[in-house]
Design a protein that fits this description.
heterodimer; A: mainly alpha; Four Helix Bundle (Hemerythrin (Met), subunit A); 5 helices; B: Cytochrome C Oxidase, Chain A; 4% strand
Chain lengths: 193, 616
């Protein structure tokens, strides 16, 4: 099957339709995490709630994720300004940092488990695993996209075209989005105990 | 640009060639390679017109399955003593034979009720209605070559197909499909030991509907992006035909509400499979206390109805959009109050998000909180009434063509009024104490979102059938279909209001142990007989549909109805990219009917120098 992308001219605005579609998808992801966090607030207010402290792994992972966003952004800028080496190296760095984030989350879950906050003990723990787990799933989706970007970077000849810029931006904006989403979730988990 | 020979007698093509915009679409040769073989043309197609037909035909399949289920449980309700052994070849062990009399097993009765709801709400009236017409009409009516992402569009259909396949498989499980009601409330849905259908049946139900959510999201992202970004030159938002506004708001509703359902489903999956207690608290099974505390089943209801209420507008808004267009075209009049129609669609869309708890008045929600939801629920009557008045005023003084599409559109207005009025009863939390979970509710929502949405869908199918298949459906059969269904649907649901007001609860297997409900027996028989006749008429429609695809009257001109919108300017066999040469440019709104002494003026025609725009 030949995947033929249709190139249609948009008369409407300067946003590429695929980027716009991605922003629309953000709205639905926001609704999903919004509903989970509001369910969390409602359950929290209803009592029967086990309080716990977030392990330090989560702070470390936050730093790693922010760093990865910065890396990817610089990589994109390097791509635009024809700096091939920086573009490729930083893309690889982003990938490594993304994997590190997921690993740190895993250590965080283990640390919580070891102090008795497991999936079943209390609804508060269940919520934590569900919310951070779903977020990690979205990060894994982003890592897959970065992997595709890496394959493109190392197999296609290095030319800066409008099409490739848009493709890169799709990955970049998604990655920034899941980064900001995590910061929101972390602050939420710290504020609503 | 690639050379396209224009037939000088083809006035739409000449007009587009003269005033259209050259987007160099056909300079790229992928347009021709695109549908190169059978698989890429008909199966994994990325052409929105084929995908629309895929959605429609899959929807028809599910409609037959869902309706047949309702006939089986209606037989049980109308004729509880009858011998049902003759269905044994189809239902097998679910017909229990006792003393030579076969009757429907009670578990399977609940499974049928549950599956009927799930299938009709999600597979038929969401995917079959919005999926079909959003795909067919959005690119054609706004003047786009295709959807923003044809690939996601294809995935959207195949996720829907997969969801259907999983649900279909669950019908044949040894333990039966899920049987806890289409809303899937816990604890029935959360504990596999709750009933036979709560085991594997429920697991498959969850998987199927999660796949369905993915399909709706992929579709919705596409519809929104396409409408906002790919409108042709001159097609401002305020010049869009009303179906476009309806599909746009429908997609926004789906996009914002289905993820909430998904998170409810995730929590339910955790409760079922991983031992969490999001929705479980202090449950006793056969006298044994369950070791699951801390959750709340009400939480699920909130998450479910936060989708569930917008969902009923996801079902009805496309029907409203289709009906607005059909009424205007076949009354040969501009739609009355175009801007009010758009604003009421937006108002309905907004309000649909803040009324969900009116489904939960009897779930133990705080009565003061209920007041808030009562007020907003009743406010929905305002934009709904605006739409109804505008439809009626559009018809007033029109030069009406009573063809099948128009009849169903008028029937829609009738159904929407009858069903909408009972909504005002149910929206009051005090009256709901008596009415909730009775046949009054069943009658209300079947008329207002079941029958009405089907009427909108039929209207759209009869109207755009030539656009889809290049042939017309049989008019005589269409009119028999309409009059039978119109009378039959009222015959089914009108008596249910009465039964419901008397307090007869819905979803009960049989009423023979309730002395006070015994005298409704003949009325239930009447309803069942009417339902069987109406089902027969729908089969007639299906026969007409498939017969007409191959043998219907051939469409000989591009614009058989004299309509203004862009979908009637494409060639009868529109290929990939919709318009062979340039893309049409729009100069006016879609409703210039009976203007300046002309019957209709298509959107592609430039304004005359002294002409006043029709929408001002």
């Amino acid at each position: 099957m030949k995947v033929a992308a249709i190139e249609q001219k948009s008369f409407r605005n300067r946003i590429h339709p695929h980027k716009f579609a991605l922003y629309v998808a953000f709205a639905s992801i926001i609704m999903m995490f919004g509903s989970l966090t509001s369910a969390y607030i409602v359950k929290n207010a209803a009592g029967n709630w086990l309080e716990y402290t977030l392990p330090n792994y989560f702070y470390a992972s936050t730093a790693v994720l922010i760093l990865s966003s910065v890396c990817l952004h610089i990589s994109f800028n390097s791509f635009k300004s024809n700096k091939e080496a920086a573009y490729k190296i930083l893309l690889l760095c982003t990938f490594a940092l993304g994997i590190t984030f997921v690993t740190l989350q895993y250590y965080g879950w283990n640390a919580l488990f070891n102090v008795g906050v497991d999936l079943k003990a209390s609804v508060s723990g269940s919520f934590l695993y569900l919310i951070t787990g779903l977020h990690a799933a979205h990060i894994l989706g982003g890592i897959a996209a970065i992997l595709v970007a890496i394959v493109h970077a190392f197999t296609l000849p290095f030319v800066v075209t409008e099409k490739r810029k848009v493709r890169f931006q799709l990955v970049l904006h998604y990655w920034h989005f899941v980064d900001i989403l995590w910061i929101y979730l972390l602050i939420f988990l710290l504020v609503c105990k | 640009m690639a050379h396209v020979a224009v037939d000088p007698n083809d006035k739409e093509a000449v007009m587009i060639e003269k005033t259209g915009y050259d987007d160099h679409f056909h300079d790229h040769h992928h347009g021709d390679k695109y549908q190169s073989n059978f698989i890429s043309h008909y199966i994994f197609s990325m052409d929105h017109k084929i995908i629309a037909r895929q959605f429609l035909i899959t929807g028809i399949f599910w409609a037959i399955v869902g309706a047949a289920m309702s006939i089986i449980f209606r037989l049980q309700l109308g004729f509880p003593e009858a011998d049902l052994q003759w269905i044994k070849p189809l239902l097998g062990k679910w017909i229990v034979v006792d003393n030579g009399i076969g009757s429907l097993s009670q578990e399977f009765y609940y499974a049928l009720v549950t599956m009927h709801g799930t299938i009709l709400v999600f597979f038929v009236l969401t995917a079959g209605l919005s999926g079909t017409f959003s795909n067919l009409l959005i690119p054609l009516q706004i003047g786009a070559r295709d959807m923003a992402s044809p690939f996601l569009n294809m995935l959207s259909y195949w996720f829907f197909f997969l969801a259907g396949a999983v649900m279909f498989y669950s019908l044949f499980l040894n333990t039966g499909p899920f049987s806890g009601g289409w809303t899937g409330y816990p604890p029935l849905s959360a504990l596999p030991q709750a009933s036979t259908g709560s085991g594997t049946g429920m697991t498959l139900w969850l998987i199927s509907l999660t796949l369905f959510v993915v399909s709706v999201l992929l579709g919705g992202i596409n519809y929104i992006t396409t409408i906002l970004n790919l409108r042709t030159k001159g097609m401002s938002m305020w010049r869009m035909p009303l179906p476009m506004w309806a599909f746009f708001v429908t997609a926004v509703l789906g996009l914002l509400s289905f993820p909430v359902l998904a998170s409810g489903f995730f929590m339910l999956m955790f409760d079922r499979g991983l031992g969490t207690s999001f929705f479980l608290n202090e449950i006793f099974i056969q006298g044994q206390a369950l070791d699951r505390v801390g959750g709340s089943p009400i939480l699920y209801q909130h998450l479910f109805w936060f989708l569930g209420h917008p969902e009923v507008y996801i079902i009805i808004l496309p029907a409203m959009g289709i009906v607005s267009e059909v009424l205007s075209v076949h009354a040969r009049k501009p739609i009355f109050g175009y801007q009010a129609m758009v604003l009421s669609i937006l108002a309905i869309g907004f309000l649909s998000f803040i009324v969900w708890a009116h489904h939960m008045f009897m779930s133990g929600v705080n009565p003061f909180l209920s007041n808030f939801f009562v007020i907003f629920t009743l406010i929905i009557a305002v934009p709904s009434a605006v739409k109804v008045f505008n439809w009626i005023t559009t018809l007033y003084g029109g030069n009406i063509r009573f063809n099948s599409a128009m009849l169903f559109a008028i029937g829609f207005v009738s159904m929407f009024i009858s069903g909408g009025l009972t909504g005002i009863f149910l929206g009051n939390s005090a009256i709901d104490i008596q009415m909730h979970d009775t046949y009054f509710v069943v009658a209300h929502f079947h008329i207002v979102m079941g029958v009405a949405a089907f009427f909108g869908m039929f209207s759209g199918i009869y109207h755009w059938f030539p656009r889809m298949f290049g042939r017309f459906m049989n008019e005589t059969l269409g009119r028999i279909h309409f009059w039978g269904t119109m009378i039959g649907a009222y015959a089914i649901f009108w008596p249910m209001h009465y039964i419901g007001m008397a307090g007869v609860p819905r979803r009960y297997y049989s009423f023979d142990t309730f002395e006070s409900f015994n005298h409704f027996g003949p009325m239930n028989q009447f309803i069942t007989i009417a339902a069987i006749i109406v089902f027969g008429l729908q089969i007639l429609f299906v026969i007409n549909f498939f017969y007409s695809i191959f043998k219907g009257k051939v469409m000989t001109e591009k614009n058989p109805y004299g309509a203004n919108t862009l979908e009637w300017t494409t060639p009868i066999e529109a290929g990939h990219g919709n318009w062979p040469g340039k893309i049409p440019v729009v100069h006016r709104w879609a409703y210039d009917y009976g203007k300046d002494g002309r019957e209709f003026i298509p959107q592609i025609e430039p304004m005359a120098s002294d002409e006043v725009a029709g929408d001002h």
